[in-house]
């Protein structure tokens, strides 16, 4: 095991902040496009979760595996996803990585270690574990795989089975739980009965890390430590961060079930505003500098959206309608 | 003599020996050699590549999918086909959708020790090929001979698509062969197991042998049943089935599955929609009864189709 973990520097913090900001601006655009009726399908935002998500994606390297979930726009951008492909997928461009065959948060490029989530929560935990097992069998070391889910996802069988199996094989898996207080409308009081989701780590015989999901610095430090520990052979790591989902489950959801007391509690802070205050308080940047960064992000997002809106939709006549890769296995069912 | 079960073990041995991407993962498959010994001695012969899994079907299949994304060729064993329903989500929603969604294929093989044996009971006897065939994105095979068990498993490992490999437990010890072939019909091609002019019997898995026995019985009365062994239920070789029905004009489909939906319903649907004019009589089918598979041998032997119930159905089909 090595060595000391580098502290989070000003430069690290600002780089992470800019990812958070770009994600926030991009998601604001998605919400606006949704209200304008331009999105194909739903929009599911990660507002309030950007610090945790960024801290996860930014500490992964090329060659690592990342299976983000529904509220990980920020982590996706940190890991190398682009504004362009995000917009293409939401707007249903034929040129997007999912080619119109899947949408919104169900996107990825598996060959680049960026797995495309399925909607069934917990399912990506064993998938990333298996990717890591294959890397190990190939003789690769120093690889880390991370996947994210929420408090609701910890109640699934797949979460349990995947984490347990990864623990048995001591795989370098980091599972990041955003305890955002609600699974759709279900509050934590109806989701689990343990005192703290972190208690589950002991049950699997793995390391657990607690983070303040509203505080970018704490998220960066915690994820740096957890990912380092996994990379150095410490086996699976469970990170649980407390925060509040600041929006409904999706843009269709009015969030009427929100307990207003949570908004004013410690978990209710907006991580982006907390980070901005930290930056200004430290004297790293001025509020004017941050406003300029936001304008730059908005410009990138808006110009990309304009470009994507001109791109072609998938053509049903052109689709090969093939769920199997082997052409000779494709059966024709169409009634003539 | 090589049993059907040994053919499966030998195919896995060959896959491990010839392809470094192959590894095995499943419950009790390591030193213990598997509940049926389908991986006997393989962990010693291939250290680190035959891995015991926790009792977690979802994780077993999910891990196979992740490994396949990374370029591996995992073969995973469900201890019994019945327990694959605990891994169903990963099989149908993850493995089955990966290629269509992402363009990245998912070359996993999920072995399902399938079908009834005497005393197996409700949860160690099921034939689930139809439910896996229902979802897009999966290849579903049902080898009925020692030779097919061997060559189709090797082919399943070689192809890029996810394969649900329904190996029949009743055949594990009953079937034996002198030698194993190097090549055979590819997956997706049915085989005429017995030629005949009077009626076509389409079947798969262990029911092939019950159907062949029924054909021998009818032959004593001078009637010739043609027996089609589907070999793979998805893709399903409609051409071979239609060609046979064109010769005989009559169709009986025999399947150990439950009757609602299923392979027999699919075959009859295809023949009636694509070859209605070939039929001289309404098609018939023989399935298991629509109850859980019973434990007691006296109940089980009536629950499943047998040579005598198949022969009786064939006689009705032939208006005898």
Output the keywords.
heterodimer, A: 336 residues, alpha/beta, 5-stranded parallel sheet, two-stranded antiparallel sheet, 11 helices, 41% helix, globular, B: 320 residues, 5-stranded mixed sheet, 12 helices, 39% helix, 18% strand
In a nutshell, what does this entry contain?
Chain A has 336 residues and is of the alpha/beta class. Chain A is built from 11 helices and 7 strands. In chain B, β10 (199-203), α8 (207-220) and β11 (225-229) form a beta-alpha-beta unit.
SS elements, strand count of chain A: 7
For the sheet with most strands of chain A, the description reads:
5 strands, parallel
In whole angstroms, the N-to-C terminal distance of chain B is 40 Å
Element order of chain A: H for helix, E for strand: HHEHHHEHEEEHEHEHHH
Percent of residues in helices of chain B:
25-40%
Helix/strand structural class of chain A: alpha/beta
| Quaternary organisation of the protein chains | heterodimer
Which strand order does the major sheet of chain A show?
1-2-3-7-6
User: Low-confidence runs of chain A (pLDDT<50, min 5 residues)?
Assistant: none
Query: Which ranges of chain B are low-confidence, i.e. pLDDT below 50, for 5 or more consecutive residues?
Result: none
CA-based gyration radius of chain B: 19 Å
Q: Biggest interface and which pair forms it?
A: A-B, 49 and 53 residues
């Amino acid at each position: 095991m090595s060595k000391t973990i580098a502290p989070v520097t000003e430069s690290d913090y600002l780089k992470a902040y800019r990812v958070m900001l770009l994600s926030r601006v991009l998601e604001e655009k998605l919400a606006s496009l949704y209200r304008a009726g331009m999105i194909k399908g739903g929009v599911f935002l990660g507002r309030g979760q950007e610090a945790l998500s960024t801290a996860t994606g930014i500490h992964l390297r090329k060659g690592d595996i990342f299976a983000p979930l529904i509220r990980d726009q920020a982590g996706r951008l940190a890991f190398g996803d682009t504004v362009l492909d995000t917009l293409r997928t939401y707007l249903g461009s034929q040129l997007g990585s999912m080619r119109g065959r899947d949408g919104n948060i169900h996107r990825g490029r598996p060959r680049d270690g960026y797995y495309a989530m399925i909607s069934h929560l917990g399912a990506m935990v064993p998938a990333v574990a298996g990717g890591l097992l294959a890397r190990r069998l190939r003789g690769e070391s120093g690889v880390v795989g991370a996947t994210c889910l929420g408090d609701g996802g910890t109640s699934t069988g797949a979460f349990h089975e995947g984490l347990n199996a990864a623990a048995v094989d001591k795989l370098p898996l980091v599972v990041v739980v955003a305890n955002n207080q609600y699974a759709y409308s279900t509050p934590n009081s109806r989701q689990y009965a343990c005192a703290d989701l972190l208690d589950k780590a002991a049950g699997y015989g793995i390391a657990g890390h607690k983070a303040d999901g509203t505080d970018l610095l704490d998220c960066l430090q915690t994820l740096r430590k957890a990912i380092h520990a996994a990379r150095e052979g410490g086996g699976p790591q469970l990170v649980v961060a407390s925060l509040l989902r600041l929006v409904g489950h999706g843009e269709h959801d009015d969030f009427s079930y929100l307990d207003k007391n949570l908004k004013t509690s410690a978990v209710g802070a907006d991580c982006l505003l907390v980070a901005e205050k930290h930056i200004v308080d430290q004297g790293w940047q001025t509020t004017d500098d941050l406003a300029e960064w936001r304008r730059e992000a908005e410009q990138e997002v808006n110009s990309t959206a304009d470009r994507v809106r001109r791109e072609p939709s998938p053509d049903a006549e052109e689709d090969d309608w093939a769920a199997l890769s082997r052409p000779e296995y494709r059966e024709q069912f169409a009634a003539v | 003599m090589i049993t059907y079960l040994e053919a499966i073990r030998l195919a896995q041995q060959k896959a491990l020996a010839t392809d470094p991407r192959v590894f095995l993962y499943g419950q009790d498959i390591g030193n213990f050699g598997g509940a049926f010994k389908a991986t006997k001695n393989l962990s010693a012969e291939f250290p680190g590549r035959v891995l015991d899994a926790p009792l977690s079907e979802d994780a077993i299949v999910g891990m196979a999918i992740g490994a396949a994304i990374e370029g591996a060729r995992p073969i995973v064993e469900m201890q019994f086909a019945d327990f694959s329903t605990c891994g169903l989500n990963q099989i149908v929603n993850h493995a089955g959708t990966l290629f269509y969604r992402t363009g990245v294929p998912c070359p996993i093989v999920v072995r399902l020790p399938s079908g009834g044996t005497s005393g197996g009971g409700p949860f160690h006897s099921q034939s689930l090929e139809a439910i896996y065939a229902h979802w897009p994105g999966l290849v579903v095979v049902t080898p009925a001979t020692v030779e097919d068990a061997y060559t189709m498993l090797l082919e399943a490992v070689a192809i890029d698509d996810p394969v649900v490999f329904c190996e029949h437990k009743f055949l594990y010890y009953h079937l034996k062969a002198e030698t194993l072939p190097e090549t055979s019909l590819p997956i997706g091609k049915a085989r005429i197991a017995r030629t005949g002019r009077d009626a076509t019997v389409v079947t798969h898995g262990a029911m092939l042998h019950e159907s062949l026995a029924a054909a021998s019985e009818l032959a004593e009365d001078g009637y010739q049943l043609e027996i089609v062994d589907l070999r793979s239920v998805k893709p399903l070789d409609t051409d071979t089935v239609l060609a046979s029905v064109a010769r005989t004009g009559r169709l009986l489909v025999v399947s150990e599955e439950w009757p609602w939906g299923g392979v027999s319903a699919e075959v009859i649907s295809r023949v009636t929609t694509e070859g209605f004019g070939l039929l001289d009589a309404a098609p018939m089918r023989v399935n298991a009864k629509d109850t859980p598979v019973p434990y007691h041998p006296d109940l089980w032997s009536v629950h499943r189709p047998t040579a005598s119930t198949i022969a009786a159905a064939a006689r009705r089909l032939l208006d005898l």
